[in-house]
Records
---
Amino acid sequence: MKENYKVIIVDDHQLFADGMVRILADEDDFEVIGICNNSTELYHMLNNHKPDLIMLDIQMGGTNGLELCYDLKKTMPQIKVILISMFESINVVNEGKNSGANGYIPKTTDAALVKKSIREVMEGRDIFIKPINPETKVDLEGGSYAFLLSKREREIILYIKKGFTSKATAEELNISQFTVDTHRKNILKKLKLNSLKELISYAYENNL
Amino acid sequence: MKENYKVIIVDDHQLFADGMVRILADEDDFEVIGICNNSTELYHMLNNHKPDLIMLDIQMGGTNGLELCYDLKKTMPQIKVILISMFESINVVNEGKNSGANGYIPKTTDAALVKKSIREVMEGRDIFIKPINPETKVDLEGGSYAFLLSKREREIILYIKKGFTSKATAEELNISQFTVDTHRKNILKKLKLNSLKELISYAYENNL
DNA sequence: ATAAAAATACCTAAAACTTGGTATTGTTAT
DNA sequence: ATAACAATACCAAGTTTTAGGTATTTTTAT
């Protein structure tokens, strides 16, 4: 008889999670024991349930899935983690590896490959997809480069959303106005935006 | 006996589409007759298959789902279209309406709501969710002066949210930059705000 | 018809943002 | 150890916004 792997799905897109449940329900060696929409829900659930595997979306509003994975692996290394993401760039895959995950699956893969990947991981082999075309500049369209942001940069964004000038932000954080300006510049560059106004809209539309 | 609605799912994330198929397979009044990962595949499929409904993701690599919806509705208005998106901002929902779609569902909704929405749409009622942004404080009594805004002022706000300078907005609307500046000033005054940045946040938090 | 509101247009000075740099000090990953 | 990233700080020129106005024309409602 086959193993019965207990799986928790973590994704802020409930619809995607609902779909995943049904995909895994096709097989009788998986059992989804829970769905969480954010890290808080996950930690809550982990108090009462011990999964064998966590399927973790790395872009969730307000939560950085990579950091979450890192924390999970630090305290519960025995739980396997497969990251799910709409990014396929080699950079993100590498960040995924560094966060301690056992696998990385882009959302462009299909149901069959997911099932195969889970079995691979549960049998002890990490699976990190080779980006199909490393030359291709990953064009995210609706996607978000927000995961590229550092902690301080996310903090700066909060002040921008509140309408703080760089001077006011600098005073609040006890750093130089020049530093705030540099952070702002770097944020715009990373997110490929042209102004703070675009940034604010971006922040709201991407739950930053 | 219930209707048997023929559905095509269009999403570049195969995994999401695979999940949707299984969600719809729960019910016997839906039948997924195809999955497409882009507009080309969709048009191909439409040569041989006539669906009752198309579930259309609006963010697909290389394809603008909104434009696709607009084109579809122009040539095949009898086919219902429900847009799916990870955005919940009022902007995008409105753009969805303008593209001729019959409904708009964010990916944060769950399987049950999707099924309900499909039935609503197939029975002739359009469904456009009122997005509830967790950050949004629904506090109409409390001090939203937004009702004071004129039509033109609301229009100006849309350009501000898109990051347009007053000069660029003026060119777009064929009016003087001074006029745009005056509108901006009046908007800030009416809403008791101090900067365009605050205005943008206000706009998102009050579904403007 | 007429008052109120909306939309238009103009002026100026100060403050803030944008852009294109350079550069040092820590920390992290390989 | 050494490359890459994060956080810090600085400079300058040009653009945009902000805040104080005034003022005319068009639309809307009573």
---
Amino acid sequence: MNNIMLSEKQKEVVSFGKGSLLVKASAGSGKTRVLTERICMLAKSTKRRILAITFSNRASEEIKNRLASIDDTLLEKVYVGTFHAFCNYVLEKHGAAIGYKELPHVFSEVEDRMRIVEKAIADTPSLRHLYESKNEKQRNQYKSKSLDVISTIKREVILDEDLTRKINDDEILLYYNYREIMSSLNAIDFDDLLFLTYKLFISNTNIAALYRRNFEYIFVDEAQDLNRAQYMVLRSLTSDENKNVMFVGDSNQSIYGFNGSSSDFMNLDFIQDYNPKVFVLNENYRSTKTILKYANQIIPNSSSLDEVVLEGVTKELCFESVEKETLWVIDKIKLLLQQKKVKDIEGEICTERIAILARNKYVLLPIEERLKKENLPYYYKSSSKGLELSSLSGSIFNLALQVKGNSKDRLHLSQLLNLLKLKNVVSLDDIIKRLENGSIYFETILTILNLKEDGSNFKLCIRQLLSKITNKLLHADENELHIAYSDFNEILNHWLNYEKRTLDRSLISFRNAIALGQTFANNEDKGITLSTVHTMKGQENDIVFLIGMDDMTFPDYRAIEKGGVEMQQEKNNLYVAVTRAKRYLFVTYPLSRIMPWGEVKKRVKSRLLPK
DNA sequence: GAAGGCCCGCTTTTT
DNA sequence: GCGGGCCTTC
């Protein structure tokens, strides 16, 4: 698309000067290109910096790559990152102003937060009794619900003085207890990143002013996904004199409502607070006619077909069972790969040009099984995630790294002791004395102890450990050595990714970068893409199979029960799914589904699909 | 208060 | 298809 001329409307947006603007850009309308070209144009004219905020690491990587490909010095002037990454960056620099003398650790693992909320419940007398009367499963449900309550307070930016009006007393106590535990561990969670940054900016207007001076222009991609905390952070970054803010978004693609986001921030608050000039980009440069007509049946007038030449293929197919559905998809894929060249798709068909999408990951399991059997290459598109370690040594390293960087982190210290089956030890120095000299665990802890805080010898230490493993200089069984080797390699790769993008390095900031998913190597594996609709957002593929389109699966049965906004979000989700396809789209659904407990349930076509 | 019967809900999406 | 909650009954 980069070599195609910009349309008149796109040019208008790109060349828009100072002031606020709202660009309503439908799927495939070239919004990322408009965004990057405008950033590029402004970067040349301003002496100050530009802030470009995205929602996913994937999107920010894409923008960075595009900017670098236009001009590789651009990134010196432009900060591109997710809301969370930006807030982390602010707190790293100025957290001390709100009491974080040492860099807090970002606890992103749900398991960690579950343990902490469990303790918070135990510390809340009025809740403890109720909690203890529950069974395992209910306790987990209760913990998740509690985490959600805590999350909501922060997402909705409810300050302490307003809590009593909105939340009941027990929940307030729980919230305070959770906060106390987190702070005793010098830890913060995802919501804190935004909430604390907002608090920092309102309580230290000089610091906020610094950022306002620093960033002359602000861009927000996927603005329909903003939640209150994010919008408030953004507002504190602008002032009446300086509000050069560009929002790009599409209300029809709002699918993160469960996370507190609402397109109202873009459509109502932004318009009211910033009075932006509104642009509409609705020409679709991505998909073929049949696909867009189908999308327009799901959300009327969502895309204009004016610029579209190719017909493409869009088919809806119904099957007796999930098994038949799966087999058809596999056969169709095999056929397309055999045919190599098909109408309206230039070049040869290969597995990389095919994606299989579904509402949730469980729907993809039978397909995965079958792809494996047929030896067809595939990979799961994942959201950028942290370390995935499978060896004991890898987990020990990861825990010890956290303990080393944060002496207050008793949570991970106790997990570390559990793994090593040790008791009554409080420091890494003491731990190593209790381990057998030359064992892989000993060497792992030793490596951690040898690491310098600024990370300058990180690569060296890991490489030494790797070579000890290769040369079998360590005591451990064959299997552990084998997986440990690949784990430490993975850790090294995360470090290399971190090193590439960070100048001011330290072990703690490395750990936080991992938690925020910034060190994830985006070199996607080869093969057919398997993905949920949410993870596929902002991406595209020539041939898309959208499977499991039976009612109750897509829309999800819980959304049907709740109705209203939830159903609107399901519809948007379907619109996102359909518009991922560039040339061919196959929509399939089964008329029966075997439930996890063995019952065969009758199914009908999704109510969201065209009649 | 124990035993027996009926009903309900099982796996969402992510920084 | 199964475990658990909740209701009825003695």
